[in-house]
Amino acid sequence: MANSKKPGGLREMLESMYSVIALLFILVACVELCDAAAAFDVYRLIQYDMSGSPFGSRFAALNHHAASLHFPPGVDLSRTVLIIPLRELNITFVREYINQKKPLGGLLVLLPEVLSFKTGGNNQVHEKEKMKNLLAELERLLIHSNIPYPVYFAFENDEIDTALADIKKNDLMGQPATATTGGYKFVIPTAEPKKVASPTMTNIQGWLSGLKTDGDANQLPTIAIVASYDTFGAAPALSVGSDSNGSGIVALLEISRLFSLLYSNPKTRGRYNLLFGLTSGGPYNYNGTQKWLRSFDQRLRESIDYAICLNSIGSWDNELWIHVSKPPENAYIKQIFEGLSNVAEELDLKVGLKHKKINISNPRVAWEHEQFSRLRVTAATLSELSVTPELLESTGGLFDTRQYVNETAIVRGVKLVAESLARHIYGHQGKNIQIFADESSLAVNPAYIRSWLDVLSQTPRVAPFLSKDDPFVMALKKELAGHVDEVNVQHETLEGIFTFYDSTSARLNIYQVASVTFDLLLLLVLGSYLIVLFSFLVITTRGLDDLISLFRRPPSRKLKTA
Asked: Which residues form a coiled coil (predicted)?
């Protein structure tokens, strides 16, 4: 009876042993996936095509070991993600690596926390100013290069600093992270980017009607105040453009609020219509402005005396520039310049004039007013920028955050434009009359400017990634509607030479993985232990003969039959 149960008990013991060994293999295989050191948000370098040519980061998924700038000479980085803090960035090294197309598994640029739009405040101003030019140069390099690997930005924190310190230590010891040696592994499990199909642009138009007297059959003249609200930068998910052109949007909203107070009373309503335009597609040759203007009927277009476009007026010291396409001798151009100059002199400011002819055959549009000039409408751009920006530059980059914008500069810009417009509308040119005097009911409201500047400085606004009913677009429409008689919204498709791709942000997982040698050694030790344990149990419970019989070759089938 006992002998008949013996094989069954041994079989159960073997099955238990196999289960333990299988579990061991599973645990060893999962060592790499179970030791997560940290996880945080990262922001991908923009990916786009211009006239069919690829630019930006062409991949998104990442699964490589990490290395620092202290990697040993001659090491293969084709399966390595390189971590570079902005404070340690050598722009020459990065430029050579990209231009020479050296192999790299991925690039992670660590930005100081003070640059995050989530932190706010104005601390460590000197440190930020010191890095501004470096970051601007890096951004120009990245957005105009075709990079065949994932490039991400992230903000420094304690977890990434700790991991980077360990990585540097290993690199300095000549032990870079590999599958053999172990180390830190960076994983971004995301799908590969897809083209953004039919990206939309939304233009918002506000209208304040002037006072029309009885028997006046002629249409009232119109003055347009315009600002482009979208941005472009190396990382779309971080492109908030506090100055370019958040400052212009804030100024337009405050100007519309001030004139709504004047126009709400028939006694102070001017004999000019005021047209307010919040346009999209600014970084892309002001494509939205072009479509908005072409939607005007001829009567409205001919009624516009002139347009003032507001662009980057939030970080100037004492001088603004008026950019025009028509000759300075033009009557309307002289009127605009003299009106602004007179008010600027009273405010102890300076206003300069820059004339640049447009080339109708060249599709490149450097300033928003040039779209008006192409349709023979007099217009000017007021900006702190004295030099014409290059394509896709000065459009809300990584360094264009709340900390770099001066609220006082925007307040002075609003007073300059509002006073100049009011004197023109009410016929007070050349007179030292302050319509929007401080401490009066018509004074510029710094708190209003500050609140909207805070909102804009936390809202990325890259046009291809803003939907028609985006909460930010709806908020702009609602705010403008509170200051004007009528608001219209125009939805258009972004057309032209640009194609954009999605996947602008992701979640980075950092794993601290053991080396393959360690895994094999651990497996060998545990396997040996289980074999010894099993042998001991069999000998003590069944005897040495049973243990030896396990390893004997079973008799053949023929022998059994005989």
From this structure: none
CA 234 to chain centre: 6
**Which class for 452: exposed (0-12), middle (13-18), buried (19 or more C-beta within 10 A)?**
buried
3-state helix, strand, coil in the chain (%, to 5): 40, 20, 40
Q: Over 50: is that where the pLDDT of 291 sits?
A: yes
* Run of H or E including 503: none
**Strand, helix or coil at 190?**
coil
Average pLDDT over residues 430-445: 89
Cβ-count burial of 330 within 10 angstroms (0-12 exposed, 13-18 middle, 19+ buried)? middle
Question: In degrees rounded to 5, what are phi and psi of residue 421?
Answer: -65, -45
The 10s digit of each residue's pLDDT in 457-475 is 999 999 999 998 999 999 9
Taking the C-alpha atoms of residue 169 and residue 219, their distance in angstroms, rounded to an integer, is 75
- Using one digit for the tens of pLDDT, what is the confidence trace for 328-376? 999 989 999 999 999 999 999 999 999 999 988 888 999 999 999 999 9
> What is the rounded distance in angstroms from the CA atom of residue 242 to the CA atom of residue 337?
26
> Using 50, 70 and 90 to split pLDDT, how confident is the model at 562?
very low
Handedness of CA 283, 284, 286, 291 (dihedral sign): negative
Three state DSSP letters for 80-135: EEEEEEHHHCCHHHHHHHHHCCCCCCEEEEEECHHHCCCCCCCCCHHHHHHHHHHH
DSSP for 225-257? Answer: EEEE--B--SSGGG---TTTTHHHHHHHHHHHH
Measured over all CA atoms, what is the biggest interatomic distance in the chain, rounded to whole angstroms?
Answer: 128
Is the four-CA dihedral 438, 341, 259, 201 of positive or negative sign? Answer: negative
The whole-angstrom separation of Cα 92 and Cα 98 is 10
For the chain, what are the domain ranges? 36-193+502-512, 198-492, 520-550
Note whether 235 and 46 are within 8 A (CB).
yes
The amino acid sitting at 193 is P
With 50 as the cut, is the pLDDT of residue 50 above it? yes
CA of residue 242 relative to chain centroid, distance? 12
CATH number for the region 198-492 comes to 3.40.630.10
Query: Which residue, among 85, 202, 75, 140, has the nearest Cα to 461 in the 3D structure?
Result: 202
